[in-house]
Amino acid sequence: MWFGLGIVAYALVHPVAQVGWTMWTIHWSTVIGLTALGGAYVWGARHLRERALHAGAEPPVLRRRQQVAFFSGLLVIFLSLNGPLHDLSDTYLFSAHMVQHLVLALAVPPLLLVGTPGWMLRPFLANAKIGAVARTITKPIHCFIIFNVVIALWHLPPMYNTAMEYHPIHIVQHLTLMVASVLMWWPFLSPLPELPRLSYPGQMLYCFLMVIPMSIVSIYIAMADHVLYPAYSIAPRVWDITPLSDQQIGGLIMWIPGGLFFYVVMTVVFFKWAARDTDTTAGAQVDWRPPRPTRTVSQARPSVTVRQDRSSSF
Predict the structure, then answer these.
(1) Are 141 and 210 in contact (CB under 8 A)?
(2) What DSSP element (H or E) covers 98?
(3) pLDDT tens, 93-126?
(4) pLDDT above 90 as % of the chain
């Protein structure tokens, strides 16, 4: 009862007429969190650079593309958790919430990982306990399990409906989703050789297996014959989409674009693997071919010529 009254009150405060691309609602918890994360990134880079200079070592370099990637990731988080997408997903449409979750899981973590150099994370591994935990949770099998368990648990009706009712739990939902997603991407984009990436064949198998659990969850949602998440059934209707249709659309968004995304990643990994093998083969041909000897007429001897030809053919 209290859950339903809370949703109705929230809908009255945010009527559907206020949702639009020109109407922006800002949640200051996200602003504070993103500002703190960006500040820690800048401070950490500056601190490690100054420490290297003080020790007489070569200072690490934070490249421009890394900074652009990291702060682009923060911008995508802000756009996902504020404004029209957030308003639609929190109050009106389950399908919009699914889009929001896919953005947080599939778009944000690669940007953050590409933007974070290994030397910025390496000092944390000096702590024995943190290093042990990091080595455990970044193993590919554990990354796979953690991500899929988090996805499955938060889409169970009791967990999802609780997050919709209590905003602090909703914040925890988004935080755990993003942390689990960073781990899911770790075997592809690890910036630390101490916590290595998977080989290219392993990455392709990882992608293929990742589709299976997400498909199970999305099929469960899309094929349900009743509304699983009642918060959306009492919300004002948007574009005349019924609650059950909205739920089915959300399941299909998770199933088809979410699944196809991993096949795209698999394709990219395959071409990177092929390109690396081509470069390695070309390098091997150059490395193994002996230099052509410079001979004068007086130095030319048939036996030497035959020996050189044989090694060249090898």
Answers:
(1) no
(2) helix 94-102
(3) 999 999 999 999 999 999 999 999 999 999 999 9
(4) 71
Question: How confident is residue 256, by pLDDT bands cut at 50, 70 and 90?
Answer: very high
Mean pLDDT of the chain, nearest integer: 85
For Cα atoms 158, 147, 155, give the angle at the middle one, nearest 5 degrees.
20
Residue 72, strand partner residues: none
pTM (two decimals): 0.81
User: Residue written as tokens 């150059």?
Assistant: 286
Q: What pLDDT, on a 0 to 100 scale, did the predictor assign at position 303?
A: 46
- Cβ-count burial 36-46 (b if 16+ within 10 Å, e if not): eeeeebeebbe
Let me know how long the chain is. Answer: 314
Please spell the DSSP secondary structure of the chain, one letter per residue. -HHHHHHHHHHHHS-GGG-BTTB----HHHHHHHHHHHHHHHHHHHHHHHHHHHTTSPPP---HHHHHHHHHHHHHHHHHHSHHHHHIIIII-HHHHHHHHHIIIIIHHHHHHHHS-HHHHHHHHTSHHHHHHHHHHTSHHHHHHHHHHHHHHHTSHHHHHHHHH-HHHHHHHHHHHHHHHHHHHHHHH-S-TTSPPPPHHHHHHHHHHHHHHHHHHHHHHHT-SS-S-GGGTSSPPSTT--HHHHHHHHHHHHHHHHHHHHHHHHHHHHHHHHHHHHHHHHHHHHHHSPPPPP--TTT--HHHHHHHHHHHH-
**Angstrom distance (rounded) from CA 155 to CA 39:** 33
Question: What are the tokens at 270?
Answer: 């395959």
CA 155 to chain centre: 19
